[in-house]
Amino acid sequence: LKEKMKEQSWNILFAERGHGVSMFRTKKTRDLVVRGIPEALRGELWLLFSGAINDMASNPGYYTELVEKSLGTCTLATDEIERDLRRSLPEHPAFQSDTGISALRRVLTAYAFRNPQIGYCQAMNILTSVLLLYAKEEEAFWLLVAVCERMLPDYFNRRIIGALVDQAVFEELIRVHLPQLTDHMTDMTFFSSVSLSWFLTLFISVLPIECAVNVVDCFFYDGIKAILQLGLAVLEYNMEKLVTCKDDAEAVTVLNRFFDSVTNKDSPLPPAVQQGSNLSDTKSDHPKVDITDLIRESNERYGDIRYEDVESMRCRNRLYVIQTLETMTKQNVLRVVSQEVKFSPSDLEELYELFKKEHFLSCYWSVNSPVLHHHDASLPYLDQYRIDCQQFRVLCHLLSPWSHCANRDSLALWTFRLMDESSSCLINFKQFACVLDMMYNGSFTEKLKLLFKLHIPPAFTEVESLNPSKGDDLSKEELIHFSQLSVSSVGDNLESDSLKSSPEKGKGKVDIQTYLKQWQDELLKKEENVKDLPRMNQSQFIQFSKTLYNLFHGDPEEELLYRTIAAVTSLLLKMEEVGRRLQSPMSPVKSPVAVTETGTEVPGEKQEESSSEQTESSRVQSLKGNHEWSFAFEQILASLLNEPAFVRFFEKPHDIKAKIESAKNLQLKARTRV
């Protein structure tokens, strides 16, 4: 009878003020909405008040087409949807059968396909379930579009910025309208934590379903203003109990008991469906509150809140919310990255700002930047700011301790290729900070391993790691033995020349045995990792040697380092020859040492460039004619550990602070040059 009386009231209004899109909104319309829209008219009026009816009329067949395209797709959103389908109003008979579950699946999947930036958020399943109770499937889809894209913007994504902004507006309204409550509860974050579900689900998750639909009625008519008003009314109703609470847990209990006591005496739903009636016996000690009275009171007390004021507060608080999110998530990112690197917190923060600035510079300079195309606010914060190869090259020029190298562009490209494990052509801050930390704070072994890996293409790495040449691997004892041989044979003459040319005259000599023992200990800890490294072939080794030559340019011990590389190259080739003989004692192997000796002459002894190029090309051609030769990382490491000048060069400390200060001033100019 009450439902028929409500319908009759609405029919009179339609006759007086128009029906459908031509209907005028008057005070009488608001009064009827507050009383609750009749079940038979609810879906129709939701479409009308939200504007979804216009979207549906403008796009005939759009939903059917979306369902066909999205059916059978498998994404992260569809996986989350499947997980939450049976959690959506499980107590309601409509969603205890495959019919209701299938309709819910189609609507949510179609919207995730329509708007991949939002995809799916957990609160969407609860809201869509209620929409499907009173609207057809296509109508529920367009209602969901209206809520997510117009009425609650930025609510349904991973950062829920829109909900956080409205919570900040809610806190501001509490200060204005409920000063007694704010005087007692100095920590306003309590209201944000407890009211988040109110905003995301329009009170559906906290109120009985027969009461929550009345709130949804007001929301589609008044927008977010209705939710703010109701929230203030709930807090005012429980004011006396809240001010006596000793902690947040007690306050949450007070509010939960209040929501359980809310009923809808005019609801036509059967008692089996009504949630409030099922709790009437257990919560009899708490006075009942009718949802209609609560909504009417919220309109009477807080109806003077204007849309213009709400929008003004939204704009004012949006920047604050975003800045707070940026600060919090930035701290989380720095905390995660700081566990992986040895930079000081201040240096790491400065690096982060330079990294983020480079990201935004790309977006500013080029609208078609791939970084801008790949920017996704729904991603975890660590992956939201990423740079491409060109941007990484700029930062490498500014920050790398090896930026003086003649082939620094090639080094930057190889380093980027090594870090881009997902082949997305983008890297995040953690990857950038880790490789920079390796260059500045890594041990001698770590820096050498980095250079070694830079000169091995990914394709070669994948093949060689699956099929290592076991016969060419030397044991650690043999490596140490050959290293000691190098000191007595090849190293004797070199050491005497080195001491003569060194400005320190033997000062600061390195204890080779100590380094060998340290290397053995590190190798035992990371033996599997080192063994996984592929062997370096001849062309890669030649490029590796050239890179070392370029790194040494301008160093005070430049000529000594050149001699060191020449001696180590000769030693490694001898080791390779011995390794082959150990593997096949009866098979004669032509020594490559004789071929390479001319190619490893010290650059300090001036030769004609044309003759050196001919020598190197003839060396490579003759080596190709012989058996293919290659070196393991352990062989190169063991040989270089015997060279004090080489170890000193890579263990020389570099000042990252000076680089950062210089980069701040030159970042924009460097980008312009590139």
From TrEMBL:
Quaternary structure annotation from Swiss-Prot or TrEMBL: Interacts (via domain Rab-GAP TBC) with RAB11B (in GTP-bound form).
Function of the protein: Involved in vesicular recycling, probably as a RAB11B GTPase-activating protein.
Compositionally biased tracts (Low complexity): 612-621
Name assigned to this protein: TBC8B protein
Ranges in coiled-coil conformation: none
Domain Rab-GAP TBC: 36-223
Organism of origin: Anthoscopus minutus (Southern penduline-tit)
Residue segments, region Disordered: 266-286, 584-621
Protein's gene: Tbc1d8b
Pfam families in the record: RabGAP-TBC
